[in-house]
Amino acid sequence: MIMPAGIEPMTTARLPFDPLAMQRVLQPIERASGLPNEAYASADFARFERDKVLARTWTCIGFGKDIPKAGDARPFDLMGLPLLMVRRRDSSIAVFHNVCSHRGATLLDKACNVQGSFRCPYHAWVYDLDGKLIATPNIGGPKQHNCDGFDKAQHGLKEVRSAVFWDMIYVNVSGDAEDFDTFSAPLRQRWGDFDMQEIRHAGADSSLQLTVNCNWKLAVENYCEAYHLPVIHPGLNSYSRLEDHYNIAEDGTFAGQGSTAYSPLLVKDGPDLPHFPSLPAKWARAAEYAAFFPNVLLGIHQDHYFSILLEPVAVDRTIERLEIYYVGDQSKSETYAATRAANLATWKTVFAEDVDVVERMQKGRQSPAYAGGVFSPRMDPPTHCFHKWLAQAALTAM
Predict the structure, then answer these.
(1) Both 342 and 217 in a single domain?
(2) Are residues 160 and 282 in the same domain?
(3) Are residues 153 and 217 in the same domain?
């Protein structure tokens, strides 16, 4: 391979991780180590992870509910990579690189309705909702809005491959991942009893955001396992006990836990939430919680579904966005307002209880005395499953 002058191909010596450490992650769980410290604490690893791991798979960047009307647009920085989600006139969703084709200025820095077009704040170039460049003021000189030899059609916004799944907006920045239907098939099959066309977001009482001082991967692995329930979630463990939980691990796709003792939220003098239609009896007391690799945490129950988008804003800081969806249009009504509020309060308590421990793990990743740790063969298969996914992706990208 011929490289431009001054640019060298990546060698093992220049990798932001030790390949042997990653190989140890792939060992059987009885002998495996976890991901090395640099996977959580190194800015060089974070850049490698963005460009060589997250960009090459399907990564979640937002929700359809964030841009409900035509012309609605919302920026998203994927670990420093500026992206832009937009609702087009036909109600479809597109994602573009949030950068003007002229001099590279970002187009938007906050969510808004762009009224049909994007106007660059630098030289006022204008793009429509399909990303086409439609106006280039003064490009040929004062009051000369065209230029000989310049073809607007060649200089539109650069679209990013995207998909919408259960209201989550996914991107494949590299453009060469497997098709999204194949990517999502294992999860869709596992939860095939649920008619996800029925999910509805009810508004402000169905959203929660937390900022946590940890690497995004620590939020994933903490969510994967039930091992910590008795210590970190004593209230939850009082009715959905550790012994009521089972492991979920689908190599390369998702991992998590299930409970056989889910108790639908009951509000005094308030109605139960509507249920997904035609569910088999097994779901009357069951719930499952899966980390859908890389950066989404999902929960499914007979009466609601939730998604947590993990936004990695720094190597040691993550924004967690919880969005709860209920079943059918009626579930959004005032009739269920108190029940929805109680449900949100319950999950807020549970997820807030996790903050201290994931931040403690982040601090611990600064210690040379820690070298990835070990796994419990009985309690940690989901966490090991996630570590293997990341390690294999990193090694494949070498």
Answers:
(1) yes
(2) no
(3) no
pTM: 0.94
Sign of the torsion formed by the C-alpha atoms of 197, 201, 207 and 211 = positive
Q: How far apart are CA 330 and CA 168, in angstroms?
A: 22
- Whether 271 is in a domain gets the answer yes
Q: Encode pLDDT of 321-348 as tens digits.
A: 999 999 999 999 999 999 999 999 999 9
Residues in CB range of 11: below 8 A, 6 or more apart: none
The two structure tokens encoding residue 348: 């807020």
| Rounded Cα–Cα distance for residues 340 and 274 (Å) | 11
> Taking 80 as the threshold, does the pLDDT of residue 71 lie above it?
yes
Note whether 356 and 218 are same-domain residues. yes
In this predicted structure, which of 155-169, 174-188, 234-248, 358-372 has the lowest mean pLDDT? 234-248
**Domain identity same for 122 and 207:** no
pLDDT range class, residue 239, cuts 50, 70, 90:
confident
pLDDT tier at 13, thresholds 50, 70, 90: low
Residue 36 pLDDT exceeds 90: yes
Which pLDDT score is estimated for 202? 95
State the Cα–Cα distance between residues 347 and 342, nearest whole angstrom: 9
Domain carrying residue 350: 191-370
**What is the distance, to the nearest Å, from the Cα of residue 50 to the centroid of all Cα atoms in its chain?**
13
Are 265 and 331 within one domain? Answer: yes
Given the structure tokens 């960009």, which residue do they identify? Answer: 55
The CATH number given to whatever domain includes residue 242 is 3.90.380.10
Q: What CA–CA distance (Å, rounded) separates 309 from 61?
A: 7
Tokens of 366: 């600064």
Same structural domain for residues 154 and 202?
Answer: no
- Are residues 274 and 198 part of one domain? yes
